[in-house]
Amino acid sequence: MANLTGKKIIVVGGSSGIGFGVAAAALEDGAEVVIVGRSAQKLKAAEKRLGGAGRVTGIAADMANEADVARLFEEAGVFDHLVATAGTPPPNYPIGETDMEFVRQFVDGKLIGAVMLAKHAARMLNKGGSMIFTSGINKDRPPVPGGSVVSAVAGSFTYFARALALELAPTRVNIVSPGWVDTEMWDEIVGEAKAGYFDQMGTRIPSGRIAKPADIAPAYLYLMQNEFMTGETIHIDGGQRLV
Ligand SMILES: NC(=O)c1ccc[n+]([C@@H]2O[C@H](COP(=O)([O-])OP(=O)(O)OC[C@H]3O[C@@H](n4cnc5c(N)ncnc54)[C@H](OP(=O)(O)O)[C@@H]3O)[C@@H](O)[C@H]2O)c1
User: Which domain holds residue 124?
Assistant: First the structure.
């Protein structure tokens, strides 16, 4: 497969976690990378950590805000691949205690945001380009109680990609569905208890440990580079769906 030299990749969520790992791997493979997040400060720090010899640009934008999304693609110009990993911790309370405002914000940031990205990205994508969105293990192994909203949102991505792959062809549209990955999001959700959670899950899953972003990034690179992959969901979870 071709490497990514000469290709321009936009990574929404590239200032942290899985997206940062994709940005680092794409740079390693020769691409020019635009990283996107809401915090300009986090973007600056990520640009510095990535290095990239002038091949990294940060653009601050909120994917839940359509004016921001439109401006993002104006500023970024034509490009080859869109990767969206952005997301915030999901709701985690029983259905009877659902905070509807929090749920709306979560769905806006993750699902409606993906629709807005696809809407505005489509006209700026070079021929042969692709879009990759991120779902996750919570649709397959939902946390109980409290997993219904994140499960519904993550599950919907598979069908979003299938329909969009037909509508936007020959642009390809795919999904990566990771298992647990050791990222900053976990620090926010469970803080210092993270190591204990990961040790326990590591002993249960076939891979024997929790993934790092660098373990997941090759799935995104594969979907960018393989011209026959479209409308597909790749699960990369160390066998977590099996236990
Ligand atoms: N980590 C896991 O175990 C895991 C497993 C399966 C699925 N996932 C999913 O993968 C995605 C990424 O998770 P992660 O662990 O990499 O999270 P993370 O380390 O917290 O990174 C999230 C990134 O998204 C950006 N972001 C959040 N909301 C945004 C918005 N509205 N507009 C633009 N950028 C936004 C953040 O920057 P700002 O805060 O500056 O905006 C940051 O760059 C999430 O949707 C998560 O549900 C994660």
Answer: 8-235
Cα(89) to ligand 1 centroid in Å equals 8
pTM of this prediction exceeds 0.90: yes
pLDDT digits (tens, 9 = 90+) for 38-61: 999 999 999 999 997 899 999 999
- Residue ranges for the chain with pLDDT beneath 50: none
Q: What is the pLDDT of residue 2?
A: 61
Mean per-residue pLDDT of the chain: 96
Does a structural domain hold residue 241? no
183 lines ligand 1 (CB under 6 A): yes
Find the 134 Cα to ligand 1 centroid distance in Å. 9
Residue 208's CB is within 10 A of a number of other CB atoms, namely 10
* In-domain check, residue 52: yes
Residue 194 contacts residue 187 (beta carbons within 8 Å): yes
Of residues 222, 148, 151, 209, the one with CA closest to residue 180: 209
Residue 35 lies in a domain: yes
Q: Which atom of ligand 1 is nearest to the CA of 135?
A: 7
Q: Ligand 1 centroid vs 14 CA: distance in angstroms? A: 8
Domain of residue 63, CATH code = 3.40.50.720
CA of 124 to the centre of ligand 1 (A): 24
The verdict on the CB of residue 238 being under 6 Å from ligand 1 is no
Total domains in the fold of the chain? 1
- The pLDDT tens digits for 89-127 are 999 999 999 999 999 999 999 999 999 999 999 999 999
Q: Are 180 and 137 in contact (CB under 8 A)?
A: yes
Give the containing element (helix H, strand E) for 39. none
The residues pairing with 35 across neighbouring beta strands, listed in sequence order, are 11, 58
Q: Counting atoms of ligand 1 from 1, which one is nearest the CA of 87?
A: 45
Q: By alpha-carbon position, which residue is closest to atom 45 of ligand 1?
A: 87
